[in-house]
Amino acid sequence: MTEDRKTPLHDEHVALGATLTGFGGWLMPLRYTSDLAEHRAVRSAAGLFDLSHMGEIHLTGPQAGAALDRALVGRASAIGVGRARYSMICAPDGAVLDDLIVYRLADEHFLVVANAGNAVRVSAALIERAEGFDAVVDDRSDATALIAVQGPRAEDVLASLTAPDDVGTVRAMKYYAWASATVTGIEALVARTGYTGEDGFELFVPAERAVELWRALLAAGQDDGLVPAGLSARDSLRLEAGMPLYGHELDETTTPFEAGLGRVVKLDKTADDGAPLPFVGREALEARAHSAPARVLVGLRGEGRRPARAGHDVVRRGLEGGVGAVVGAVTSGLPSPTLGYPVAMAYVTPEVSAPGTELAVDVRGRAEPFVVVDLPFYQRA
């Protein structure tokens, strides 16, 4: 059995008393104090996350954009320098291999950020799919650390450490944009992206500078209520925000259309001569786009107190709390710390997917009442 890898910040997590757990092949902090406290800190002030387990794969060269257009379902070549876009890499049958963020760093330079457990196979797939293009794929994951500051006070915390010449750029940065900035003397790629439903930033720095940056951010954010936050808070935050997690809402049995993310699939991609531009999975996804789905991803709001959990059956409401016919399955679920009631995401059959539909979840043999609602559950003001 392979031992979980450690991020450059591992010793910092141990010193802070974090509970550690294996995740995607890495040993990561699950929590430092309590899941609830860390979740609420991000919603009300700021949280600091170690994301150094994520994969950072660079593509460079005159045809780097064209190679990504071939490899991914989106149109990477249309991303402007200084901007980023959410995308996916799919198998030939249209199944999702991973969901990604693609940053355009220069005309001939792109950065693809992959999920930790999928980084190796994404890198391998990009190398294979870039064959024949004038482009180089370079996996720099081991040399890169990624630290996120998320929450309504994130901008102020980051600005307090940013060089005077770069502060205005950081404060003016748009969502899904990035810029180079000097933060506490470290040259960083700073992106206004995140996975919490709050405003925030993700900072890419050399792995050897990670500890220095982490400590500086913790100290700078102390008066603003910033706390280190672990995977548990990250999961509850992203679920409230209706954001999918690979291995739960997305996997190799799922296409982007079933997940309600068909917008990322650009079937209108064309070559210079106007012909449809081939990309891996195109034929399967085109067929899926014009057919009725067998299942639909929905949000579920609990009417009781018992939460649904991943793997629980979604059922029709039976009489007197009985369990009715199975119509789907929960992919993620927990009590919402922000909203005060259970929330879940689930795949259900189309006829029960409309908002307002009354369903139930089989929790240990008891049908707990839930109602279909639009996603996200939580949206910041």
From TrEMBL:
It is an enzyme of class 2 (transferase). The keyword Transferase applies. GO terms for molecular function: aminomethyltransferase activity. Its EC number is 2.1.2.10. The glycine cleavage system catalyzes the degradation of glycine. HAMAP family: GcvT (MF_00259). The glycine cleavage system is composed of four proteins: P, T, L and H. This is Aminomethyltransferase.
